């Protein structure tokens, strides 16, 4: 939701304003590592890859997704270990179970990744790269790549305390929300208490005590002489964070922690005739765009919860465009469902039609 607001803001305020950079001094080779990434995280990395490629640098991306860019300067390496892909992890079974499955898949990935021939080959030529950018959190199995090479950590989400401590920025849990825990700004005393408990539980129990030792064991089996993963992580030169202070929670950051939120936003492209007329035909009640992102699968949600959405949408005077990853019987007349939607173009169209023209 925050990202959506941010895109709206960028589209509305920034328009097409772009700074002009001096040409790069030379062509660099940059390796982007996101062996465990959701589709939306890949989209964010792709905007970085494309901007670098556009400026003449050579980019190689290691991901768990099929190739999606045709840029000649971008080479996508897919490791093909399918169990890590979002469609194979159901976070709706039970939240705790979902995280457990995710952790287990990550440990499996640490075990299998370096046995994949294309990954092995990439690992052996890693010293050819001038810079590595690693997707942060749950990609610790990629740290053997960064040994003795300058690297940047890219947080596809908001900052969290464990990772920012690495750069010496110890966030105060009294006013910075821990990952996976919803807070309002400012937090109530009760939320602060829960924030501390959930932080201790998630990071010290979930990660430091459970996940990291397992990852370390798998990685040490492949690379017995390598420093520990957390020591490799500590050598990061910089951190990119996918948030922006204008719409996010206020967080004190160091000069080496750069907010790059909305990096993936671009001017809207024209919509298909069908979407265009659905939006403009909604009249004065307007249109609601509804998506839970790429990781949350509606097909995984228990039917009774899904039906609550259907019934609520049915009662609305607005038209609803719903990113829904399956087939649904009995779709209300005011609801359009699609498996994947051009979100930025839709938001652009909605702004154009309702904000700029007053929607008539
Ligand atoms: C730490 O990073 C620097 C450059 O950023 C690099 O020269 C050095 O080899 C790295 N050390 C380790 C242990 O990776």
UniProtKB/TrEMBL annotation:
InterPro entries, sorted: UDP-glycosyltransferase, UDP_glucos_trans
GO molecular function: UDP-glycosyltransferase activity
Signal peptide coordinates: 1-19
Keywords in alphabetical order: Glycosyltransferase, Signal, Transferase
Family annotation (PANTHER family): EG:EG0003.4 PROTEIN-RELATED
Family: Belongs to the UDP-glycosyltransferase family.
Protein name (record): Uncharacterized protein
The species this protein was found in: Cherax quadricarinatus
């Amino acid at each position: 939701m925050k990202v959506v607001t941010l895109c709206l803001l960028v589209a509305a305020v920034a328009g097409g304003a772009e700074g002009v950079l001096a040409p790069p001094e030379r062509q660099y080779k940059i390796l982007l590592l996101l062996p465990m990434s959701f589709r939306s995280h890949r989209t964010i990395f792709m905007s970085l890859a494309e901007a670098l490629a556009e400026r003449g640098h050579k980019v190689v991306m290691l991901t768990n997704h099929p190739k999606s860019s045709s840029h000649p300067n971008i080479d996508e390496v897919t490791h093909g270990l399918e169990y890590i892909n979002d469609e194979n992890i159901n976070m709706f079974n039970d939240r705790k179970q979902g995280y457990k499955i995710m952790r287990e898949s990550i440990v499996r990935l640490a075990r299998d990744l370096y046995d994949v021939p294309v990954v092995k080959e990439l690992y052996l030529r890693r010293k050819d790269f001038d810079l590595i950018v690693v997707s942060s959190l749950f990609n610790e199995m990629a740290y053997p790549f960064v040994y003795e090479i300058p690297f940047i950590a890219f947080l596809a989400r908001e900052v969290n305390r464990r990772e920012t401590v690495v750069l010496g920025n110890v966030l105060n849990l009294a006013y910075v929300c821990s990952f996976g825990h919803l807070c309002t700004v400012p937090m109530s005393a009760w939320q602060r208490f829960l924030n501390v408990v959930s932080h201790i539980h998630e990071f010290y129990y979930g990660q430091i005590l459970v996940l990291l030792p397992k990852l370390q064991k798998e990685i040490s089996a492949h690379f017995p002489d390598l420093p520990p993963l957390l020591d490799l992580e500590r050598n990061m030169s910089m951190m990119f964070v996918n948030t922006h202070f204008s719409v996010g929670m206020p967080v004190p950051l160091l000069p080496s922690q750069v907010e790059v939120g909305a990096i993936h936003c671009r001017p809207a492209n024209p919509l298909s005739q069908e979407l265009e007329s659905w939006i403009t035909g909604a009249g004065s009640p307007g249109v609601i765009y509804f998506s839970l992102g790429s990781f949350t699968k509606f097909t995984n949600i228990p039917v009774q919860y899904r039906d609550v959405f259907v019934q609520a949408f049915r009662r609305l005077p607005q038209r609803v465009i719903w990113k829904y990853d399956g087939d649904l019987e009995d779709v209300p007349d005011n609801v359009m469902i699609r498996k994947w939607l051009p979100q930025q173009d839709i938001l652009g169209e909605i702004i154009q039609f309702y904000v700029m023209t007053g929607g008539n």
